[in-house]
Design a protein that fits this description.
The chain has 462 residues and is mainly alpha-helical. It is built from 19 helices and 6 strands. Among the domains are: 244 residues, Fido-like domain (Fic-like fold, Orthogonal Bundle); 77 residues. It is globular. It holds the Pfam family Fic.
Length: 462
Amino acid sequence: MYIWQRDDWPSFRWDAARLIQPLAAAARRHGALFGLLYPLGEQDRLLVQSDAVTEDAIQSSRIEGETLARDSVRASARRRLGLEAGPGGSNDRRADGAVAMLLDATRDPSRPLTDETLFGWHAALFPTGWSEMRRIPVGQWRSGPEPMQVVSGPAHNPVVHYEAPPADAVPAEMARFLTWFNDSAERAALDPVLRAGLAQLWFLTIHPFEDGNGRIGRAIADRALAQDEAMPQRLLSLSQAIAGDREGYWDRLEETQKGNGDVTGWLAWFVDAYDRSARDAEVAIGGVLRRTKMLDQARQAGVTPRQEAVLVRMLDPEWKGFMTSPKWAKLTDCSMPTAQRDIADLVAKGLLAANPGGSKNSSYRLAGPLAPADMAPATLQPFFAEPTEEGRRKAKALVRAMSPDEIRLRLTVSEALAGQWEGDPSRATALPALRTGIELLAGEGAGRQAPRSSARSSAWER
């Protein structure tokens, strides 16, 4: 029996005592984000929002096994927010539709959520009327006698994870859901994070569309959170946090949708994802703050336009690795002697710093602190301190929960620390553990470039 087949559907219950502490911790972390935003100007706040929308669109699609080109998504987000789109990024209607839906979900969140709103989001996700190799009804509820099932495995022997209510029940089910969603926005009786988690679960249980349910369900959760924040700017990428634990996401859904109406497990998982999304946002806002300070410092130091252009590239969240003279020469189309002079000048101005162990093939990083204060060696220690198999397992789980930006940041810190500790007798026992951490970070970072697909992902999306 599925949850919607129970006589008391849709009556949800949960263990409030189990959720109090995780909710309080998540609320504190989220509240701190507004303090981080305070020193940012309007342009930088828009950059934060653009980065959050970009990550959300990419990761929400990734959860369902679909890949969107980052350049196209970022260009669309920046254009829609009135920012310079930047280089690269072809016109991709799928990317543009995903961005349009996410921005509409949180812009003026006090608007009622209606079936027409959801139909518009659905049409934005499927601008051609096709999903992969099949035509689907767009901008309308699903119809037809075929059961809507979430399956995995081979076609001749599929595993059914879930079956949604029949299509003829969808209009009434959605009318009841939308009434609850809009009415509950006016009441303060339900914690806003729990309300967002319930909204996503309820919508996914109805599964009202032929395809795109996962992405729209996450956008509904975004709308619920934005209603509590009373601000149109997106700071969080909930989908990024969910993508970090896709198996947990699907497992909690299946467990709850086959359960007895107790949604504590799902809500506990959702609150944890919300907390992780706030941590990811801290890293992203810190990156924008660093970019602003660095460019202000560069302009005051009188850098050339060519030097500023390279600094902007290095400050981009997508920048990978370090700067070298050959890389500089290639990026700016200048000679090697010019590249060497440009780099030496930035080092002298305190804008670039040579990495430890340099030689004729020296590499350089942006100067200043290698990372925020919470990236100090003492804080890094829990990731790498235990040389046991259990220690590696725990470290791997922690790394997998990190955002791509945080992985790159910690990898930069760790590699620089390893260079500094090399040959230091006092670090002889810590260095192997640090190298193990570098291995884990590098391996997970490479894995993020080519996420594994899952038959269950596309099935659950539909």
